[in-house]
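Chain A, query sequence.
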Amino acid sequence: MLVLTKTFRFQKLVQLPVCEQLIRYFHREPIPVAWKKPENGWTKLNFDGSCKGRNGKSSIGGVVRNDKAEFLLGYAESIGCANSTIAEITALRRGLELVLENGWNNDVWLEGDAKTLVEILVKRRTIRCLEVQRHVSHINSILPELNNYIVSHVYREGNRAADKFAQMGHQLDKPTIWRDNPPHEVLNIVHEDAQGKIVLRRR
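Chain A, predicted structure.
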């Protein structure tokens, strides 16, 4: 079962003077965003991809936590040159593989901050890129092995731990996995997420 918990809204674009655009931007009410722990018995995978520079140097990362917001596993690695969609979908694919390898295939919540990828998975959007098609096919072959799962979008402010792992991936020479205890670079974020810290996002 796929559940899309984020409602997408599309508004008509109106060209305004730059000064007025800036005034409106900075006077909009910020959106409170927080990472949410999964329901009792569920496992949550947050994933993210990162692209830097004109050459498209990319990396991936993700974090798995239980219903008590306890850190179970984190992963990060450099994947060479790729666009943002490839990075995001590779991050999800790797996360799913680790979820299965560790036996967390009951009640899994998959969450990322890439709307396009969530739409591809939930709405079965048509994909033209052959490489993306290949990744999606592999993911679709993994998903039936999960007994129950949902897929959702979250703003980047609610995906900070996965984002940090993805950033760390740029500095790694080989794929790295952390188990039970997060690295110090992510420790504060994991603790803040567990406490329900709210991060304000400008619209």
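Helices lie at 18-27, 84-101, 115-122, 130-142, 160-169, 184-194. The beta strands are 31-33, 43-52, 57-65, 71-81, 108-112, 149-153, 176-179, 199-201.
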